[in-house]
Amino acid sequence: MKRLAPLIAALLLPSAPAHAESATTALPVPIRHNPFRRLADSPLATDGAAAPAPAEWKPTLRGVLRAGPNSLADVDGQMVAIGEKLDGHRLLSVSDYQAVFEKEGRRVILDMRRPQEPRP
Fold first, then answer.
1. Is 71 strand, coil or helix?
2. What are the angstrom distances between the C-alpha of 63 and each of 5, 13, 106, 112?
3. Is residue 91 a part of any domain in this protein?
4. pTM for the predicted model, two decimal places
5. How far apart are the first and last CA of the chain?
6. Suppose 17 and one of 23, 44, 90, 100 were both cysteines; which one would form an S-S bond, judging by CB atoms 3.0 to 4.6 Å apart?
7. Residue 69: inside a domain, yes or no?
């Protein structure tokens, strides 16, 4: 009978948790703060204002040399071939008065003509 006592007690009593962590999660603990809120001293914290927009890239197109796939653009005195990058902007195409650059999906068109002249 002494050997059966632990077996009977194990069957009649609620089972003990197999893991210590499951015993601590028996009752949910109410959360008293927002765990997703950024702390004020966090480098990612914002004061409600949007992040400043990146500076606009506005170099001067000084000239173009149209030669099909070997076309060049003179941008601030630096010659750039189609496919090459300047300040992270890749030159896509060159036309009579324009050079088209792209960076991160945004296109920038540089034009040698004065702004008041109509574009074809």
1. coil
2. 99, 90, 22, 7
3. yes
4. 0.52
5. 104
6. 23
7. yes
CA distance 106 to 93: 14
Cα 4 to chain center, whole Å?
66
Q: Which two tokens stand for residue 84?
A: 């090459």
| Residue 107 placed within a domain | yes
pLDDT in tens, 32-82: 666 667 676 666 555 555 556 667 888 999 999 999 999 999 999 999 999
Q: Which two tokens stand for residue 43?
A: 């480098």
Which residues are 111's β-sheet partners? 98
Contact partners, residue 96, CB within 8 Å, separation at least 6: 64, 66
In a domain, 97, yes or no: yes
List, in sequence order, every residue forming a beta bridge with 93; answer none if it has no partner.
100
> Which residue(s) pair with 34 in the sheet?
none
The token duo for 76 is: 């601030």
- One-letter amino acid for residue 82 of the chain: I
Instruction: Count CB atoms within 10 A of the CB of residue 113.
Output: 12
Q: Which domain holds residue 85?
A: 61-111
